[in-house]
Amino acid sequence: MHDTVLLVDDEHHVLTSLTRILADELFEVVCAGSGEEALKLMETTPVKVVVSDERMVGMQGSELLTKIKELYPHTQRILLTGHASEEATMKAVNQGEIYRFFTKPWDEDELKSAIRSAIDKYNLEWW
Amino acid sequence: MNRILLVDDEVNVLSALTRALFDEPYQITCAQSGEEALELVAATPFKLVISDEKMIGMQGSELLAILKERYPHTLRMLLTGHATLEAAMKAVNQGEIYRFFTKPWNDTDLKFAIRSAIERYDLEAENRRLLATVRNQAMEIKVLEKRYPGISRVEKNPQGSFVLPDLSEAEIKTMMAECEQECG
User: Fold this and answer.
1) At residue B155, does pLDDT exceed 90?
2) Which of A23, A64, B86, B121 has the fewest beta carbons under 10 Å from its own?
3) pTM of the model
């Protein structure tokens, strides 16, 4: 199985700049513009780590991560958000059991190292 | 023993929590600061630590980050009245908290989360125990194989029947004793 990372954000430029930052990494990056699209993609593509925005049109990030936790508990979940209410944070932690939580603008090195460590965690737990 | 440590600098919160958990099968200990909590955890193992964020001295997210590093098996929860985004980030990223609650809390939700944390702790402890057993057995087989090459493999004759070596009870006993001695 490939090391695949799924990025979810409804702002196209965020996905573009994240993809550019992660271009040199050893994992494969796929993108989705909504929670619905992310879930659809995961039906056919096994994903080790999901990095999702919170505020999106349609499904919210914390809701998406909760669904992913239920459907694909092995996939590690990271919330990357510009604005997170206390309620969204609670939902992401308590129901989505997120591995990491970052705010925008992100720190490149921290984000990269968090994704790498999430992939390691996946491999350690399920391989 | 299901030991839980509650950390809050407000005594009335500690009493309310203790009262709320009175009927549950836990042994509850309270600490009024992060520093006191660290002293208690160093002396006695706890399955779960529930901490407030804003306290005099060490903050809750800082305490939970230290606990994660020193006692990774102990589960961690943040129960707070005011959590800044930075505190929440620290609690998640460095403290790897299991649950996050705000005050005033809902007794039922909190009790349910604690039960589930204890279950998770027990499950992980059982996993560690089983892993140690498996490793130990693999080691025993390796030692036996070194001394008696072929002993860990089953041979079949051309007819497909298993060929078992002729060993007396005494020989088996000696081998087991040697093995136990070498594996510690």
Assistant:
1) no
2) A23
3) 0.86
| B93 vs A86, A94, A100: nearest CB | A100
Give the pLDDT confidence score for residue B184 in this predicted structure.
59
Q: Which of A55, A62, A85, A90 to mutate to test the interface with B (most CBs of B within 10 A)?
A: A90
Task: Please tell me the total count of domains within chain B.
Answer: 2
B128-138 per-position pLDDT tens digit: 999 999 999 99
Domain check: are B101 and B156 in the same one? no
Residues 6+ positions from B49 with CB-CB distance below 8 Å? B4, B5, B7, B37, B41, B63, B64, B67, B74, B75, B76, B77
> In terms of DSSP H, where are the helices of B47-168?
60-70, 85-93, 107-147
Query: Does any domain span residue B132?
Result: no
Taking CB atoms and an 8 Å cutoff, what residues of chain A touch B54? none
